[in-house]
Amino acid sequence: MIFGDLAVRKGTGSPYDKLEPLSGQQLAKLSSKAAYLPMEYLAFLGEVGWGELGDASFMLYSGPVDTLSISGVIPGLMAVALIGDDFAGCTVGLSASGEVMEFTPDGEARRVASGFAQFIREKIDDLSG
Fold it and tell me: Where along the chain do its domains lie?
């Protein structure tokens, strides 16, 4: 288990207590539909879950969102799989190389982590105080 250390602390007042793990069937369906998703992202969804981190600090989606459903198309958005947002207009996505990118509402893009595990652990650490 990649995120076993987090999974055992779930329900102890952590910022990820509200997350709901995907079932094995849901994970299989997601990985068959989107084979490009990194294993660490799928592992997190299965071991820890998806949903709201902290108190409306970040929403991790249950799978990548179709970029056409995001209002206001941002240049370069089609090259990433959108996996979450900050409830304030910034979206986060995974590039084809597995890097985590952040897109602001005004179209700016920046790399925020080299991979999903780094990103989610830093996000959790930030919310843990």
Answer: 4-128
Per-residue CA distances from 51 to 33, 39, 57, 58, 69 (Å) = 20, 19, 11, 8, 18
- CB-CB contact of 16 with 6 (8 Å): yes
Question: In one letter, which amino acid is 126?
Answer: D
CB distance 74 to 95 below 8 Å: no
> How many angstroms separate the CA atoms of 90 and 108, rounded?
10
What fold characterizes domain 4-128? SMI1/KNR4-like (3.40.1580)
pLDDT digits (tens, 9 = 90+) for 50-101: 999 999 999 999 999 866 555 455 555 556 889 999 999 899 999 888 899 9
**Residue-wise pLDDT tens digits, 18-33:** 999 999 999 999 999 8
